[in-house]
Amino acid sequence: MFDFLEGYDVLGAFWTTVQLTVLSALGSLVWGTLLAGMRVSPVPLMRGFGTAYVNIVRNIPLTVIIVFSSLGLADIFGVTLGASDDFELQGFRLAALSLVAYTAAFVCEALRSGINTVSLGQAEAARAIGLSFSQTLRLIVLPQAFRSVIAPLANVLIALTKNTTVAAAIGVAEAATLMKEMIENEAQTVLIGAVFAFGFVVLTLPTGLLLGWLGKRLAVKR
Amino acid sequence: MTSVLYDAPGPRAKRRNVIFSVVFFVLLALLLWWIWQTMDDKGQLTASLWEPFTTAQAWTTYLLPGLGNTLKAAALAMVIALPLGAVFGIARLSDHRWVRGSAGAVVEFFRAIPVLLLMLFANEFYVRSTGLSSEERPLYAVVTGLVLYNASVLAEIVRAGILALPKGQTEAAYAVGLRKGQTMASILLPQAVTAMLPAIVSQLVVIVKDTALGGVMLAFPELLNSRSTLAANYANVIPSFLVVAAIFIVLNFALTSFASWLEGRLRRGKKSTGAVLHADDATIAGTAATGGGGGGI
Question: Using alpha carbons only, what angle is made at residue A164 by residues B104 and B152, rounded to the nearest 5 degrees?
Fold first, then answer.
């Protein structure tokens, strides 16, 4: 029944999907946290930059960003992220960069809503004992904010996992690329669809369950 | 200064803020200058590359038809997905376990799968089992993919909206002798829809953005796709990307602003129950524990 799988590296394609997801997740967590820090900082210019970045990037389709990274950044600006001779690797890295740039905006918004859930007294107490803005943010507010936004961040992570399929637009050899190739060549459209759907359910469902459980456990009880 | 994270700045903090501003400004300026310089080096600032956008032809031949297709697909997907989502959202709240269970399974399934896979699958399905012409097929495939995904997201929004209503509404409806169906149709749903409006408008942004997938993967002639035809004609890759991105930003920013204006208005109105769903509430309230979708492309 599953003969059609022979000759295709389905697991390999999903492995690329996982790698792309993990790499972009880490990158967007870092960049998103920095953006959130800028958006609440006392320096107006940084606040403005953070706001502008989030509003602009959130409203551009990820597809446009990824296609631009290939046609614009790589072909015209010559940004190849150190992989100019290896087209496959270049596509992978550009896709990861685009995913980081895009997802960070959502991470930033999630974190900012988390910062708002930290009670006023915490920040006031931190100021009262003489902590500076960056100390307040790093030591008092962000640790609590992170714990309260695990569930929203899990949603961002799940969306990111699904968004990695957009990398197919620039030919990165991940799950969607392989599925497109397979349904064009093989007769069992429905079965192939089911296999790939199952793959994504396996990737996203445990993530949601695990992080949902973790979020409940770690939430700061107030 | 409205933030509680920092005090109103004293003389030292003021000085420090100025220094930070200057350093950040310099970094930002360097970045912009580098971008400008590279564009200049690669000849992307030549007037001839930008000129097409001042002529009517580039707009009427490429960009406006593309934008039209984008909006058409988004509107179709929304109009079909909304009632479907309402049905599944209500089914998930059914008293019968098999209705609740199967609706839940369908919703969770389609939320867990990337839209792109749904579109690719729908496209291939139409190739094999229908006689759709190859001009019509991409639109059908894009709309099918968008409907399947967004109906399940909207189902969650509807469910969260109904659950957010106070219990007294249902109890009062039963007390005056309404049946289950009547309670849902004339008491709960109208209130829930009002509360959900901002979330629904926000979902439109996701749909508009997702149409771009059809342009790259299925040759659906939407905005991103017409960009490549335009760039092939005028050889202006970077300018065409910038213009298309700007159109998307303006369009989606207008939708986002409309959603938050609506939300503010509904919150102030407070004629009904005062429960207003923000775009993210549904995914958080709905199925944070069971995973599934959220976000979207």
Answer: 20
Contact B47, B55 (CB under 8 A): no
Q: How far is A86 from chain B (nearest CA, A)?
A: 23
pLDDT of A131 reads 87
Q: What is the 3-state secondary structure (H, E, C) of chain B?
A: CCCCCCCCCCHHHHHHHHHHHHHHHHHHHHHHHHHHHHHHHCCCCCHHHHHHHHCHHHHHHHHHHHHHHHHHHHHHHHHHHHHHHHHHHHHCCCCCHHHHHHHHHHHHHHHHCCHHHHHHHHHHHHHHHCCCCCCCHHHHHHHHHHHHHHHHHHHHHHHHHHHCCCHHHHHHHHHCCCCHHHHHHHHHHHHHHHHHHHHHHHHHHHHHHHHHHHHHHCCCCCHHHHHHHHHHHHCCHHHHHHHHHHHHHHHHHHHHHHHHHHHHHHHHHCCCCCCCCCCCHHHHHHHCCCCCCCCCC
Mean pLDDT throughout B156-163?
91
**Residues 1-30 (B) with a CB less than 8 A from some CB of A:** 1, 3-7, 9, 13, 17, 20-21, 24-25, 28
Q: What is the Cα–Cα distance from B112 to B294, expressed in whole angstroms?
A: 9
What's the burial of B244, exposed, middle or buried (CB within 10 Å: 0-12/13-18/19+)?
buried
Count Cβ–Cβ pairs < 8 Å, chain A vs chain B. 207
* Six-digit token string for A188: 């069992």
Of B3, B9, B292, the CB nearest to A40: B3
**pLDDT tens column, A186-220:** 888 889 999 999 999 999 988 888 988 888 888 77
**Amino acid, res. B39:** M
Task: Identify the pLDDT of residue A72.
Answer: 87
Residue A65's φ and ψ, nearest 5 degrees, are -65, -45
CA angle in degrees (0–180, nearest 5) for B99-B105-B110: 130
* Domains located in chain B, CATH noted: 50-271 (1.10.3720.10)
Which portions of chain A are predicted below pLDDT 50?
none
Please report which confidence band the pLDDT of residue B288 belongs to, taking 50, 70 and 90 as the band edges. very low
Instruction: Kindly identify which residue of chain A lies nearest to residue B208, measuring between CA atoms.
Output: A61
Name the token pair of A39.
């958006």
From B173's Cα to the closest Cα of chain A, the distance in A is: 34
